[in-house]
Design a protein that fits this description.
heterodimer; A: alpha/beta; FAD/NAD(P)-binding domain; Enolase-like, domain 1; 3 domains; 21 strands; B: 0% strand; mitochondrion (chain B); oxoglutarate dehydrogenase (succinyl-transferring) activity (chain B); Ribosomal protein S36, mitochondrial (chain B); Kgd4/YMR-31 (chain B); NAD (chain A)
Chain lengths: 507, 126
């Protein structure tokens, strides 16, 4: 037998051809193919969640040549941001602003308008068109970059294997050498008020109300609450914001900017109850009753509304993920514990986005997604957590990056301040949109930029310049000596830098 | 004359402002990266749980928890050869398949099988 095995290959081939009686068939492969018990090949990377963190990681992984699968249960990619967050809210914010402006701000511009009516259904349709266009765009990018997309709910079977309950029925499983958890976050419910997304709503319900409520109470004066409160206030609702802290915009917003934002929003008709806590709520009657009290107690009051928006924050979303099957742990606030390279306790499982540490912002998740793939592929990634911008898309917009004045004071860090108001900016003047200012904080000795805070038109776009300056350690003089086009709102940014290191020209 | 010009130029350059922002050049991956788990920069506690990551301090401690077709044991390394017992296979166990009765051995390969395996089935077509 051994001798026969040693026959030269060509001889074997010729003898085989002459003697064989095997029929020549068109497709004999199936007869010879060995069957395997495993359901699918092992992927280089499996990502659970197709939100901003997950889909960006999937595309980047595809670009880096990894075999990647992305599991998403919503049936549409883009996660909260694209489907029920940033994108639809910006559509409503933009269109409600236009409606409000046409109603209240045309006479001084020499424009006479006739009967202006709101078509809420049409406004919602415009929002849905934007959303569906963007989510389909991601599916295209998946195909372009060779990403396998599974529509279903993923949960860990063990450290390497994920079971997927498919949306269309049935079940499959995928194995990954690396796994990324990017399951995002959900709105934190308010104890005692059951969310029905009709009368007691989260930001998701606030994006698709069927009619403009007469009275809307917003619990929580953070960015989400103020943005959605602005939308419905512009469309005609009487909006009251109840906030536990003594300032709106959350703790990251500079106090001076926050006060100005509150003043301007109040001018637009939004009422504020700061330093106030909601004790209990009752949604059983025709209107919803909220018992509120001052944060310190002693000033009880009853508020009523047709709709209550619960915007007290978001919490990591890991339910049904089977973290325990992979031996993973979450901290006391439900965040998956990771190290500086996004690794969990099991080093091949990484975690990015809202479901872990850091601010719950889409652009932070994007940065982490790219960095996590670079850690997998190259062993090195970069995210600067000190330079993540925040934007509130009200009108005027509020945007900031770096440290604020109260943080610098608390840490005893010396600083100098420079400000420039939009009322002295030529473009803002021509636009008849002059509310707000640019504020810069810099090191008094080196002049290095420490933080930038803007309230005003286009603040969200302008903050990119401050972010770049901060990332590269620029001084305010570096900014001020950079030529800015005239007439632009960005000149206010340059002038604020001039005011910080020397003096502004136009103020 | 030239000395004056040089002096003038030097004075002019001395007054020049040096930007704080610098061109850092093409990004390169550092040659040495410490991959031992460190707390995440945005971690609220600034620390990692005690049992975080595969932090085996020695090969020996790694072997304690390593798995390969079941748990790996350190017994061979830790025991003297005299205490490991005989090297023969225990009764009823065999080192090689060919020591088993003929019916458990592999079937001899036919020429047709060899050819099909070597060519991936290609010679069967046409």
């Amino acid at each position: 037998m051994l001798a026969s095995r040693l026959i030269p290959r060509t001889a074997v081939r010729s003898s085989f051809r002459s003697k064989t009686s095997l029929p020549t068939v068109v497709s004999p492969v199936s007869r010879w193919r060995r069957g395997y018990a495993s359901q699918s090949e092992e992927k280089d990377l499996v990502i659970i969640g197709g939100g901003v963190a997950g889909y960006v990681a999937a595309i980047k992984a595809g670009q880096e040549g990894l075999k990647v699968t992305c599991i998403e249960k919503r049936g549409a990619l883009g996660g909260t941001c694209l489907n029920v967050g940033c994108i639809p809210s910006k559509s409503l914010l933009n269109n409600s602003h236009l409606y409000h402006q046409i109603l209240h701000d045309t006479k001084g511009r020499g424009i006479e308008v006739g009967d202006v009516k709101l078509n809420l259904e049409g406004m919602m349709k415009a929002k849905e068109t934007s959303v569906s266009g963007l989510t389909k765009g991601i599916e295209f990018l998946f195909k372009k970059n060779g990403v396998e997309y599974i529509k279903g709910t993923g949960s860990f079977i063990n450290e390497h294997e994920i079971k997927v309950a498919l949306n269309e029925g049935g079940e499959t499983s995928v194995k990954g050498k690396n796994i990324i958890i990017a399951t995002g976050s959900e709105a934190t419910p308010f104890p005692g008020l059951e969310i029905d997304e009709k009368r007691v709503i989260t930001s998701t319900g606030a994006l698709s109300l069927e009619k403009v409520p007469e009275k809307l109470i917003v619990i929580g004066g953070g960015i989400i609450g103020l943005e959605m409160g602005s939308v419905w206030s512009r469309l005609g609702a009487k909006v009251t914001v109840v906030e536990f802290l003594n300032q709106i915009g959350g703790p990251g917003m500079d106090t001076e900017i926050s006060k100005q934002a509150q003043k301007l929003l109040k001018k637009q008709g939004v009422e504020f109850k700061l330093g106030t806590k909601v004790v209990s709520g009752d949604a059983s009657g025709e209107t919803i009753k909220l018992e509120v009290d001052s944060a310190k107690g002693g000033k009880p009051e009853t508020l009523d509304a047709d709709v209550v928006l619960v915007a007290i924050g978001r919490r990591p979303y890991t339910s049904g993920l089977g973290l325990e099957n992979a031996g993973l742990e979450v901290d006391e606030r439900g965040r998956v514990v990771i190290d500086s390279e996004y690794r969990t306790k099991a080093s091949h499982i990484r975690c990015i986005g809202d479901v872990t540490f850091g601010p719950m912002l889409a652009h932070k998740a994007e940065e982490e997604a790219v960095a996590a793939i670079e850690y997998i592929k190259k062993g090195y990634g970069h995210v600067n957590y000190g330079v993540i911008p925040s934007v509130m898309y009200t009108h005027p917009e509020v945007a900031w990056v770096g440290q604020n004045e109260q943080e610098l004071k608390a840490q005893n860090i010396p600083y100098k301040v420079g400000t420039f108001p939009f009322s002295a900016n030529s473009r803002a003047k021509t636009n008849l949109d002059t509310d707000g200012l640019v504020k810069m904080l810099a090191d008094p000795e080196t002049d290095r930029l420490l933080g930038c805070h803007i309230i005003g038109p286009n603040a969200g776009e302008m903050i990119a310049e401050a972010t770049l300056a901060l990332e590269y350690g620029a001084s305010t003089e570096d900014i001020a000596r950079t030529c800015h086009a005239h007439p632009t709102l960005a000149e206010a940014f340059k002038e604020a830098a001039m005011a910080t290191y020397s003096k502004a020209i136009h103020f | 004359m030239f000395a004056t010009r040089a002096l003038r130029q030097a004075t002019a350059h001395a007054a020049e402002r040096t930007p704080l922002i610098r061109f850092i050049g093409k990004r390169e991956i550092p040659s040495h990266i410490d991959h031992t788990p460190q707390p995440h920069p945005a971690s609220p506690t600034g620390s990692l749980p005690a049992n975080f990551g595969n932090t085996h301090t020695s090969f020996s401690s790694y072997r304690d928890s390593a798995q390969q077709h079941g748990p790996l044991r350190k017994s061979i390394g830790s025991l003297p050869a005299s205490r490991l017992g005989p090297v023969e296979a225990p009764k009823g166990q065999y080192f090689d398949r060919n020591e088993l009765p003929a019916r458990f051995r592999r079937m001899p390969l036919s020429l047709a099988e060899i050819e099909a395996i070597e060519t991936g089935g290609a010679t069967l077509v046409g």
